[in-house]
Amino acid sequence: MLNSEEIKKQLTQVLNPLTGKSILDENRVEEILLENEELKIVYRRDGIDREHKKKLENEILNTLKAHISEDKILLKSISEKIDSNINKNQKQNNPAAHSTIPPKKKIPGVKNVIAVGSGKGGVGKSTVTVNLAMELKNQGLKVGIIDADIYGPSIPMALGKMGAQPLANDDNKMLPLEAHGVKFISFGLFIDKESPVIWRGPMLGKVLNQFFFDVVWGELDVLLIDLPPGTGDVQLSMVQKIQTDGAVIVSTPQDLAFLDARRALEMFKKMELPIIGLVENMSSFICDSCDKEHFIFGHSKLKSVCEELSLPFLGKIPMDGMVASSGDSGTPIMAPNSSARAVVRDSITGIVNSLKNDLK
């Protein structure tokens, strides 16, 4: 591993994408710390927006990864505005709280990490995750899924791998399973499907850390993380520990469902995670016999709400019995060998096309 001076020399090659000047010339590097074979870099991001922050951090990683493994590089950004807001909120809510946000690691070999959240259970988030993964794969991308829904892992069933067991390599790293060309790992692979999971936050965080950094993902274009509903320990651990490129929020048309989804949205915003957009699932039902569209959950206001919030609306997925039955059978509706109604396939393809605009 390089020493601090050699690392500083490498960082002279890293340019601020907004000014074209080296981050060292701009005195942005606050700290370079080598400890326990890990490298921590703290830098100032004042005047750099989220989009250019991502570009800057990718350039730092690309510059150093020839000398240090990506999973050993921790990047932390600070700014006067962000730190003052954090300190203000923490003094109000918890005077004893620390005023720092932990540095984040990049998952080696993974170009894009996207969280899929809902804030509420029962909106079909896992089904949406699986079918988005299938269509991304259909369009030629290498895709993986982390099933982070510890208490209700459903990805193994949706992918037809119930009861399967992942293997380990010679370095004691887990090898993900693969179904329909998509790699995945799930807590559901390690427990009895009928046993309740009674775990506390620290144990959950440990499992997630293994899924992030002890699984041999290889080279992936996209890694989707299927989050549990709510805004608890699992979501916070993910956002705080790994470099995540954005979040997709799934909701049904109900005002009640979006009320919970909005909580997830606000959590991601506070954690400075870019919101890629919102997907409306079970938007309507088209009757087989009368061919009429029925709005079982009422006429949706989600698209107009997204416009008010300047939030991208990625699209709607209609309610269709084939979507549910295909998930139960282990062959997702967007899998290459699945027969699906054109209206459903077209909806999911449109969402994926919108989603791809945010990929590196």
Structural class: alpha/beta
Sketch the topology as an H/E string, one letter per element. Answer: HEEHEHEEHEHEEEEHEHEHEEHEHH
- Percent helix among the residues? 25-40%
- Report how far apart the termini are: 28 Å
CATH topology of the largest domain: Rossmann fold
Number of helices: 11
Radius of gyration: 21 Å
Please name the fourth-level CATH homologous superfamily of the largest domain.
P-loop containing nucleotide triphosphate hydrolases
CATH hierarchy, class of the largest domain: Alpha Beta
Largest sheet entry: 9 strands, mixed
Low-confidence runs (pLDDT<50, min 5 residues)?
82-101
Q: Tally the beta strands.
A: 15
* Apparent shape: globular
Query: How many domains would you count in the coordinates?
Result: 2
Note the beta-strand portion.
15-25%
User: What is the mean pLDDT?
Assistant: 81
Which architecture of the largest domain per CATH?
3-Layer(aba) Sandwich
Write the layout of secondary structure elements.
Elements: H1 4-11, E1 29-35, E2 38-44, H2 50-64, E3 73-78, H3 80-93, E4 104-105, E5 110-117, H4 125-138, E6 143-147, H5 155-158, E7 167-168, E8 174-175, E9 177-179, E10 182-186, H6 201-213, E11 220-226, H7 233-241, E12 246-251, H8 255-270, E13 275-286, E14 293-294, H9 302-308, E15 313-319, H10 321-329, H11 342-355
Parallel strand pairs: 2-3, 5-11, 5-12, 6-10, 6-11, 12-13, 13-15
Antiparallel strand pairs: 1-2, 3-4, 7-8, 9-10, 13-14
Helix pairs in contact: 4-11, 6-7
